C-alpha cells in the first residue's frame, strides 16, 4: 500500500535537540526515529513511501534518497505547518487513485500490526492505555469505530488513536477540512468523514510509542537497546570484556581493560577506554577525547 509518512514536524517540545534537525530525524539507536517507522511500513509491504517534509527537509531527503529498502521514495513539502490533514493534502498529488496509509513519523510501530492495518482498510490503529485523556479516544462497537473524541474529560474507552491510518482512495478528496478550534486542519476530521461513509475497523496495534517529548525519546532508545543482538564489527582489545547484547559498530574502538555490560550500542567513531566500565542500556558515541554515554 502506498504510505504517507508525516515528517514535517519541527518538534518545539524537543528543543534544543531539534535546533538543527526535525523531530523525526532524532536518533533512536543506530538510525533516525522516522527510519524505524519506515522500516515497519516496508516490512508491512508498503509499495511506495511519500515523506511529507518541511523544517530541515534536506535531512530527511539525504537519509532516504529516492529508494529505501527497495521501495520507491517521493517527497511532498508542507509549506506551512497547519495540521495533519494539511500535511496529507500536501502529498495528494503524489498518490495514485488507490487506498493509502498515513503514519506519524514520530511514532514507533510493530510491522505485524501495520500489515493488519493495511489489510483491513479502511482502518485506524488503536492501542489501550491507562489514561486516554491526553489522546484521541475511540468509541468502538464490534470492532468498528463509531466516533473519535479528542482529549475527552470522560473517555468512552481506553483505546486511543496511534496516528496510523489506512484510508480508502476516496479520502483523497476529503482532505480540505475546515480549521479546528486550534487553528489547524486535523486528520481526525477526515477520519470522521470515513466513519460516516464506511465501516472503519479499529486494528489493535501491539507495540506503539509516540515520541513527542525528551523522556519519550529516552524510552525509544531503551526499546532499541532491549532489542539488539550481539554484534562486533569494530576494534575490540583482547582483554576488554563484553557481556550480553553489545553492538560495536565498524569504526568504533574498545580499548584495553574496558568492561561493557549489554544492552549497549557503541557507535562508529567512538573510542571507549582504556580501563572504563559501562553499565547496561548505554549508547556510546564519538566525542573529541573518548565516548559519551546516553541513557
Automatic annotation (TrEMBL):
Keywords: Nucleotidyltransferase, Transferase. Gene3D superfamilies: Spore Coat Polysaccharide Biosynthesis Protein SpsA, Chain A. The keyword Nucleotidyltransferase applies. It holds the Pfam family NTP_transferase. Residues 3-222 form the Nucleotidyl transferase domain. Residues 286-295 have a biased composition (Basic residues). InterPro entries: Bifunctiontional_GlmU_arc-type, GlmU-like, NTP_transferase_dom, Nucleotide-diphossugar_trans. Residues 270-295 are annotated as: Disordered. One of its GO terms (molecular function) is glucosamine-1-phosphate N-acetyltransferase activity. This is Bifunctional UDP-N-acetylglucosamine pyrophosphorylase / Glucosamine-1-phosphate N-acetyltransferase. It comes from Halolamina pelagica.
Amino acid at each position: 500500500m502506498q504510505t504517507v509518512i508525516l515528517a514535517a514536524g519541527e518538534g518545539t517540545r524537543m528543543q534544543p535537540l531539534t535546533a538543527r534537525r526535525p523531530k523525526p530525524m532524532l536518533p533512536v539507536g543506530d538510525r533516525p526515529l522516522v527510519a524505524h517507522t519506515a522500516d515497519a511500513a516496508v516490512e508491512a509491504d508498503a509499495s511506495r513511501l511519500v515523506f511529507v517534509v518541511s523544517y530541515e527537509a534536506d535531512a530527511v531527503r539525504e537519509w532516504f534518497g529516492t529508494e529505501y529498502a527497495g521501495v520507491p521514495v517521493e517527497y511532498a513539502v508542507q509549506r506551512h505547518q497547519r495540521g495533519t490533514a494539511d500535511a496529507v493534502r500536501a502529498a495528494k498529488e503524489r498518490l495514485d487513485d488507490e487506498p493509502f496509509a498515513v503514519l506519524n513519523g514520530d511514532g514507533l510501530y510493530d510491522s505485524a500490526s501495520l500489515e493488519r492495518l493495511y489489510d483491513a482498510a479502511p482502518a485506524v490503529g488503536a492501542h489501550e492505555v491507562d489514561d486516554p485523556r491526553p489522546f484521541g479516544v475511540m468509541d468502538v462497537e464490534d470492532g468498528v469505530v463509531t466516533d473519535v473524541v479528542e482529549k475527552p474529560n470522560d473517555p468512552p474507552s481506553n483505546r486511543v488513536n496511534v496516528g496510523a491510518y489506512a484510508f480508502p482512495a476516496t479520502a483523497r478528496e476529503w482532505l480540505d477540512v475546515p480549521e479546528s478550534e486550534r487553528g489547524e486542519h486535523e486528520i481526525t476530521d477526515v477520519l470522521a468523514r470515513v466513519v460516516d461513509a464506511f465501516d472503519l475497523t479499529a486494528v489493535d496495534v501491539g507495540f506503539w510509542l509516540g515520541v513527542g517529548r525528551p523522556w519519550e525519546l529516552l524510552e525509544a532508545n531503551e526499546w532499541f537497546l532491549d532489542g539488539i543482538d550481539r554484534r562486533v564489527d569494530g576494534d575490540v582489545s583482547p582483554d576488554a570484556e563484553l557481556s550480553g547484547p553489545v553492538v560495536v559498530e565498524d569504526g568504533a574502538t574498545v580499548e584495553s581493560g574496558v568492561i561493557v555490560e549489554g544492552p549497549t550500542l557503541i557507535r562508529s567513531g567512538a573510542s571507549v577506554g582504556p580501563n572504563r566500565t559501562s553499565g547496561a542500556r548505554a549508547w556510546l558515541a564519538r566525542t573529541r577525547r573518548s565516548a559519551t554515554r546516553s541513557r
